[in-house]
Amino acid sequence: MTASSSLSSSEQLSVAVVGGSGYAGGEFLRLALAHPNLKVTQVTSERNAGMPVPMLHPNLRSLTNLKFRKLAELEAADVIVLALPHNSAARQIGTFEALGQVIIDLSADFRLKDPEVYARYYGEAHPAPERLSEWVYGNPELHRAELVGATRIACAGCFATSVILGLYPLLKLGTVLPKDIIATGLVGSSAAGASSSDSSHHPEREGSLRVYKPVGHRHTAEVQQELPGNFPIHLTAISTPRVRGILTTIQTWLPDGYSERDVWGTFREVYAEEPFIRIVKVQKGIHRYPDPKLLDGTNFCDIGFEMDNETGRVVVMSAIDNLVKGTAGHAVQCLNIARGWNERAGLGFAGLHPA
Known about the structure:
Elements: E1 13-18, H1 23-33, E2 38-44, H2 53-56, E3 77-82, H3 93-97, E4 100-105, H4 115-122, E5 136-138, H5 140-147, E6 152-155, H6 158-172, E7 181-187, E8 210-213, H7 219-226, E9 233-239, E10 246-253, H8 260-271, E11 277-279, E12 301-308, E13 313-320, H9 324-339
Helix pairs in contact: 1-9, 6-7
């Protein structure tokens, strides 16, 4: 699917990545350096100023000669991508807007429309509540029309993305009963920070399987804001030893008379033309359900489901690479739509198998 716009698909925009030493900034760099319409001109990092970018992102060797610079040295660019810890971008938004036409925020600062909800989930008042209405929530499958021509894009959270994309068709078409919905995410360490649920700025770490956020996950607020209807929904995050990937299982209930065919039809009707949504459900074999391993480096969201005909319970499985479809890839996809470029531009990597 390609967004329609009067903007030229051959235009070239300069890009500055603020906070480019973390996972999210590094992933956006990887995608932007291969994008036909983008030219990365600046990357900031306070701690690593003066260091060549590939020293921290070795996968970018020979792809860029840029060095990190301090934020105070940031110059004007067509697009400014903010890969900062939450509550940081909002405090400095005036500075960034003076330097860039298009601002893309990878943190949580402008995702929520209600400042009271933000304060409840993030433990402090929003630094710029009067600006929240100016930003488009960066989920292309839900907000493609609003993204066309947008200059302020607040990219969706990674866990929230896996939940929203897995549930959206069922709720949009009124397929589920108004009962509590339970979503459990197995998340890689790049999405499971010790003190934050965002993947915008985390050092690499290894860990064992553990429940790191049983209740009160911050992305609950995004899910409740974005999904149609008013359903009680409960999120639990469990970290895994992998660095990348989220596999979310969502349990909900269907009315009497609904069948597996109806669920298939619901997903097909809503996602039939989506370039990065794949329905994965076959009868046998080791690849019959979504597997985040197969999505490493890709912008796909694979969705599958299984239905218990005796109880009406349906379990939806949603898998993404949290750093791509959950963060940087979402950002690139949103920018493609905003500028009227091919929606797939810069996002053609098909993943690896075996993985």
